[in-house]
């Protein structure tokens, strides 16, 4: 199986050729086990490698084809990852899973003992050398045992009148996301979710108009952080299908955000999965004529030895130990802080509003005339910001609140800043001197801001960074 086209059972995407690119903040590489003629797509992590879909030819006897395009149907394959760049031999997953019809994409529970996968509903019925146009896609599950895959069951919400496909299971196993063109949606294909309650799946719920559009939303992937990745040909995509992500804020999905280039392109980009730390992953694209699987690694820099940001404190306590006792006289001490403010007393506190070089004087004044009787002491006091990267934002915010952050108050000497990198502590990162962010769940988050200098004559860059805590409160508990 594969992807959809409107009112059609299977979508075939074409990719081939070797591709490796570096752009912006990612390195992407076409994986070596892709074929030139056939399609490989929809990877899912499994044990020491991945399982993926392909319509590559596997034998010389029975090879059913789709009567609309003559391509072979899709099976599930397994390949082990030897190193970061080397992969093993591609093997068919299991004859107990793969049939003469379409299988895949798939998803697993976190122990990898149960798999949910897409398959034609009538997979046991041979119809010549093709499949019936009315043989819709459904979701099936199977148990991974020592003796192979067993207990294959159909999902209770499969239907012979429409497609139910592209499953993605949440890390806790309680939410099953999928794509379907069932009636009552917002467009051709929408995303749905079923919640497990007491061992049974509840009715499918449409993810709503913020996620689903008049177009097609397909290939959901629910990350263990709660972020939902999917592909859509709407939401302002730059190509046909682009990859987006969204998260729930106060029970509502917020507006999807497109991934940057080069992951998204003017071609079809879909089927993304990403590791727990959101540093690397896989996705699919037809940018080279047939569907291929690509790896990506984020190049977002790491700032070692960050220190906690210090707040600038321009408040001081002033006192003079060697002063003369004026209690018996009509004379009083008065501090002149050089910023237009004065205060009477031998020991006083004062906060300066701005940085600068101030002349602070301790004068003895005549209480009757107000004149300066004599000057007790004079100090030159430079008020400077702490030399550090500075994160300017609220310390406490609410879930779902759009908060502004900036680095305008950064104070670094002999450091010409070229780039600002933000890490919000919730798995999301971005660049820029001023940004906005939304937290989707309560907690205490560590926000980091790192900066790079411009290159010197030898091509070297300096970097510095700080972090601070932000408390995110639930709206209900504010």
Record keyword descriptors for this entry.
about 475 residues; mainly beta; 3 domains; five-stranded antiparallel sheet; Neuraminidase; disordered N terminus; Immunoglobulin-like
Main pleated-sheet profile: 6 strands, mixed
Under the CATH scheme, which class of the largest domain?
Mainly Beta
Instruction: Report the total helices.
Output: 0
Estimate what percentage of residues fall within beta strands.
Answer: 35-45%
CATH fold-type name of the largest domain: Neuraminidase
Tally of individual domains: 3
Description:
The strands form eleven sheets. Strands 27, 34, 36, 37, 39 and 40 form a six-stranded mixed β-sheet that branches. This protein has strands at residues 14-15, 20-23, 26-30, 40-46, 49-54, 75-80, 91-92, 103-108, 114-120, 137-145, 148-154, 164-169, 175-180, 190-197, 200-201, 205-206, 217-222, 228-232, 242-246, 248-249, 252-253, 257-258, 269-274, 280-285, 289-290, 292-298, 307-308, 315-318, 331-336, 342-344, 348-351, 356-366, 372-383, 396-398, 402-406, 417-423, 429-431, 434-438, 443-453, 463-473. The protein is built from no helices and 40 strands. The relative contact order is 0.10. The protein is mainly β. Strand 12 (164-169) and strand 13 form a beta hairpin.
